[in-house]
Amino acid sequence: MAEAQNTNIQEQDINQLLKVRREKLAALQEAGKDPFRITKYDVTHHSAEIKEHFEELEGKTVRIAGRMMSKRIMGKASFCNVQDLPGNIQSYVARDNVGEETYADFKKMDVGDIVGIEGTVFKTKTGEISVHATRLTLLSKSLQILPEKFHGLTNTDIRYRQRYTDLIMNSEVRETFIKRSKIISAIRRYLEGEGFLEVETPMLVANAGGAAAKPFETHFNALDEDVKLRISLELYLKRLIVGGMERVYEIGRVFRNEGLDTRHNPEFTLMELYQAYTDYYGMMDLTEKMFRYVAQEVCGTTLIPYAEEMIDLGKPFERLTMVDAVKKYTGIDFDEVPDTAAAKKLADEKGVQYEARHAKGDILNLFFEEFVEEHLIQPVFIMDHPVEISPLTKRKPDKPDYVERFELFIYGREMCNAYSELNDPIDQRGRFEEQERQFAMGDEEANHTDEDFLNALEIGMPPTGGIGYGIDRLVMLLTNSQAIRDVLLFPTMRQLD
Prior knowledge:
There is one protein chain. 37% of the residues lie in helices and 26% in strands. It has helices spanning 2-30, 47-52, 54-57, 95-98, 100-108, 156-161, 163-169, 171-193, 234-242, 280-299, 322-330, 340-350, 360-371, 425-440, 451-459, 471-479, and strands at 61-74, 77-84, 87-94, 114-123, 129-140, 197-198, 204-205, 217-220, 225-229, 247-255, 267-276, 303-306, 309-312, 318-321, 380-383, 395-396, 399-403, 405-410, 413-420, 464-470. The protein has an eight-stranded mixed sheet with strand order 6-10-11-20-19-18-15-14, with helices on both faces. Strands 1-2-3-5-4 form a five-stranded mixed barrel. Helix 7 crosses helix 8, helix 8 packs across helix 10 and helix 8 (171-193) packs across helix 16. The chain is elongated.
């Protein structure tokens, strides 16, 4: 009962504070000082720049702008702290310097207001680099109340729903998303240096292929046709390889109608690239070099802390076939397993769940997921997947039940997926037909036949290496973030009632 009364009192207090802020805005507007009528403010410096170049800027006039995060009124002179993108800086506001009217207005400002301050750079007696204000402008009035500064914004649900507040209150969150932008820029620089062209392909498609995932569906009114949101970038990028664009890549959103967890969001950022006249070994070399380059460019090191581990991207990445990986951690050699019946018998003995439609290769993959993935902490390329789970991949000439495919694993997580791309249109048609059978048997993630893609392959696609990278997982690694929602500015959330 007492707790309910306290909550009610708190809500009344907040409502009163919000009412006061609106009254302050109304008073400003009545006095002809409406902050929302200001259209621009010429910023000359940011906080980090002033601190970094203090010796050059001491005594010089600067103009800063940002959100007031704290304010201390001390009679005729006061202090406030202004936060901008790279950090924050203190400002000393004295009545004798800004004038009585401006100082009176300043005293009425609230934490959360956005201000512009012109003044000279100096260092206080305690050694703090500050701006001695000579002019102060209210640029925007905050009508809401920021979370209490000491406790910050810690409720993860509110943080994700109100990312704007999260970015204001948590500097490490801002750093994560600044770093995300730098990671994507570094990837682009690396690929441009390797001769790749950045392209764009459709998001609304008739056939959502290129991955094992259930698509989102919608209706295109103008053509009165049902369409899907893409689940992959693959099939259109391969069409460009057919067209003679020898090295292409795309960074873009893809959409998969699947569950939410720490590593999955229904819309996420994928980067796929395709290179003619190479194979999956070429993709391994490119991946290793690119991960190393991006880490060095963005983090300044190839030794990356993640959770309780130190991930070493500087050493050569280990290479291990899926069969050998399963053998290493279970003692079972699937090369010695004669057929699907024997594989299912082993699964029964080991308690591995499978479906009736699964073949030997599917069982091998289930063993890998169950017994191997969690052990793959340092970077390792898992190679040579079974053909049953790789419908778009070229078979190994000496082992046709397996394909030239690899996945990079770091900290037990798949970071990318790559192939020697299947360019045989006859084999590809047969793989599509098998996928159609799997769909009919209940596999909602199976691929469907794409006749236009098959037509492109019949025109002729050169030997090609291709790869897909989950950008969000790479950002998680390089920012030491444990959940995908921590690296998505606006993750998918259940709508509030």
